[in-house]
Automatic annotation (TrEMBL):
This is Uncharacterized protein. It comes from Nymphaea colorata. Keywords: Coiled coil. Residues 6-47 form a coiled coil. The lineage of its organism: Eukaryota, Viridiplantae, Streptophyta, Embryophyta, Tracheophyta.
Amino acid sequence: EENFCIEWLRGELKAKEEANAELKAKVAEVEKESARREREMDILRQSLRIMTTRCSSNRQFM
């Protein structure tokens, strides 16, 4: 019976370690996607600044 408990606990430990590894992989994926979206937002902000600057400089010459 003691061996059964030990084997059962080892199985539980292995399952939890696998679940932990899967969760860490998902977290890494979400962080990567978040960084990609942040870069896209930065590019959009820069583009908006450029367009706003060009628009305001064109108005000065009218």
